[in-house]
Amino acid sequence: MRAKRISYIVGVIGSAAALVLGSNSMAFAASGSASGTGVSASASWSWSGCCTINNISQTVSDTKGDSHAVYTFLRVYDSYNPDGLDIATLRDDQGYNSTITRNGRYWEASNNINGVRVIACVDDAGTDTCFKGAYVDNPNT
What pTM value is reported for the model? Predict the structure, then answer.
């Protein structure tokens, strides 16, 4: 009887530990957007654990007839890049009232991804004009 009770207790403790440890690798859906004069952009993605962004879906629209292309990207903030690393650029040079969409990209970091921000830009002569979306925190870190 004692052996069964010990194995039952170990089993319960092991299951609880798996639940606690497993909670760090849950997938959560997230989204963000950014817009300003001439450009509108949005993105959605899934957090997969501490270090991966899956199923990135992006859209960028040219909202001003000014002959300037527009683009969007995600700025990923991780342990090695606290100022952000720009990934998944999507460009629209189809002109006014056009929208470009791309699905299915992913990003995997070798360390904790702390958060992501959508950036929308107008490709101006010289320095581009960019608009930052809200910071979206990774719930797994």
Answer: 0.81
Q: Express each pLDDT in 73-130 by its tens digit.
A: 999 999 899 999 999 999 999 999 999 999 999 999 999 999 999 999 999 988 999 9
Distance CA 3, CA 34 (A): 61
pLDDT in tens, 29-65: 999 999 999 999 999 999 999 999 999 999 999 999 9
CB 118 within 8 A of CB 72: yes
Question: Do β-strands 136-137 and 99-108 pair in parallel, antiparallel, or remain unpaired?
Answer: unpaired
Pairing assessment for the beta strands 85-92 and 113-122 based on DSSP bridges:
unpaired
